[in-house]
Amino acid sequence: MAGTLYITGDKAADGLLNKDGTALLIGMLLDQQVPMEWAFSGPAKLKERLGHVDARKIAAMDEADFVAVCAEKPSIHRFPGSMGKRIHQLCTVLTDEYGGKASNIWKDLATGAELYRRLHALPGYGEEKSHIFVAILAKTQGVAPEGWREAAGKFGDDVPRSVADISDPESLAKVREWKKAQKAAKRNKQDQPI
């Protein structure tokens, strides 16, 4: 994997996201109730503290010990306790079902619908997060199974609406502008009234 996602403002942190599927999956998991940059910097913080973002090693840790790592200042999220537990759960599923590698989720897939189904079954991956991650894989990581646009929902279009549409400073600015306009119009990322 060697993608084009540009989000954290830190070359090493973005590089980790673009090379390591588990880091990318964890970054997307953290992308709620905090700025995108903070969420997607989380995997780099974990790697700095643990020396890795290996799902098998994280799953093997005592959950409370892992949560304590997540809560170290600066914490990986506004809610490091609940998000630390969720990461631990995610890594356990990756270990038990995907050989400890997130990239196995999208390996040898026939359709975008199957990719969406696999993502949606993961801890912390609801409908919208799963749609966005399908779009991230297709738009920035070169993983575009047949029907990915349909599986990504609104996030499969060419409107700069989410992290999936960010590959450089200019596209980051466009996504921010679009989100600001949506907020002013009282609409969400899927163009629905809020």
From TrEMBL:
Record-annotated HhH-GPD domain positions: 26-178
InterPro entries, per database record: DNA_glycosylase (IPR011257), HhH-GPD_base_excis (IPR017658), HhH-GPD_domain (IPR003265)
Signal peptide region: none
Family annotation (SUPFAM superfamilies): DNA-glycosylase (SSF48150)
Protein name: Putative HhH-GPD family protein
Record GO terms (molecular function): catalytic activity
Biological process annotations from GO: base-excision repair
